[in-house]
Amino acid sequence: MKYPAHTASSGTQDRMPGIGPDSGEEAGSPPPADSANATLPTPSRPRRLYDKRRNKGWVGCAEEISGPDHGVDTGHVDHPHEDPQSLPTELRPYLEELVRRTRTVCGPHLVSVFAVGSLALRDYRHGRSDADVTVVVEPSLPGPALHDLAGALSHPHLPCPAAGLELVVYGTDFLSRPSAAAGYLLDLITGPLLPNRADFDAARSPAFWYAIDRSVAHQTGLSLFGRPAREVIAAPERPHLLAAIRASVREHSDGEGHLADNRVLNGCRSVVFCRTGRWMAKRGAAREVALAEEDFRPLVEAAVRSFERPRSSAIPLPAAEVRTFLTWVHERVDQTARESGA
């Protein structure tokens, strides 16, 4: 979760852009919801035809979207995407509608949509986890479309059934090269348990959150639409990634805005990554650390029990023990960086 570290800036909107005739809404945008409890709109599936002449199989037909910049290319062929049955039942209609709205706003400029974070690592906890999504667009996407997208996907206009939605939009030109920068075009944070925020200025955000997220996406991003993650997202270089992990551990050591269980479990995940070079789900990483580090086992097991509860009923953890554990995590990360010459 990166939202506690965000600060208001000239590139940040705490209130989501409006949707309607006076706000630059594109024709074909979904109607606004009346309240946070509004029924999720039934996704409108694009019509599809079988194109025998070009031997391209099932080809997506144009949706009814006005304007030259937001039309869907009728020759676009959908790439294989994640089996919906592998996604949490509670999120399937929501993610389908999110992709539909993203396609409506971005049109032919849309390259890919991925589920990342706990969804990609198969550790989503309903009522506790956010829905983390990465969107990839061509640099030719018109700037106003980013504001339209923030409005179309913001809660409660699109009611979010998860604790929140953390959606980041990148351009293909940025993602094609390894980078330690934040680099996003839009960072949207919204949902029933999160503050609504749409940020368009990556230069003002701590970069480490995004480098780690892109590393996870490169490894395990679940394709909801378009090209696979490994084709469009370059993994950050190891020295930059270890620096990002160190910054993440420092952030969680400070503790402000983070639940204690999440601080401990993020520490476990950082340690396991340093040992294996692979990202694991938080609870899986916790099991690895609990087995290997007997002194920290009671704290880690308590953090897992707390994580399995809703955020509102998280179990308090001993503050001194959490600080001691995160100091140990920081030492492990520093040791890995020294050994790898980072």
How would you characterize this protein structure?
By secondary structure, the protein is α+β, with helices and mostly antiparallel strands. It has two domains: 3-232, no CATH class; 238-339, no CATH class. 37% of the residues lie in helices and 13% in strands. The protein has eleven helices and nine strands. The protein has helices spanning 92-106, 117-120, 143-153, 172-175, 208-220, 229-232, 238-254, 260-276, 282-292, 297-307, 319-339; strands at residues 12-13, 48-51, 57-60, 110-116, 131-137, 165-171, 186-190, 197-199, 222-226. The strands form two sheets. A seven-stranded mixed beta sheet has the order 1-8-7-6-5-4-9, sandwiched between helices. Strands 2-3 form a two-stranded antiparallel sheet. Helix 5 (208-220) crosses helix 7 and helix 8 (260-276) runs parallel beside helix 11. It is globular and about 55 Å long. The two termini are 25 Å apart.
Number of domains: 2
Level of helix content? 25-40%
Unreliable stretches, pLDDT < 50, 5 or more residues?
5-80
The quaternary structure here is single chain
The Rg value, from CA coordinates, equals 20 Å
Number of helices: 11
Amount of beta strand:
5-15%
Strand order of the largest sheet: 1-8-7-6-5-4-9
The computed structural class is alpha+beta
**Secondary-structure element order, as H and E?**
EEEHEHEHEHEEHEHHHHHH
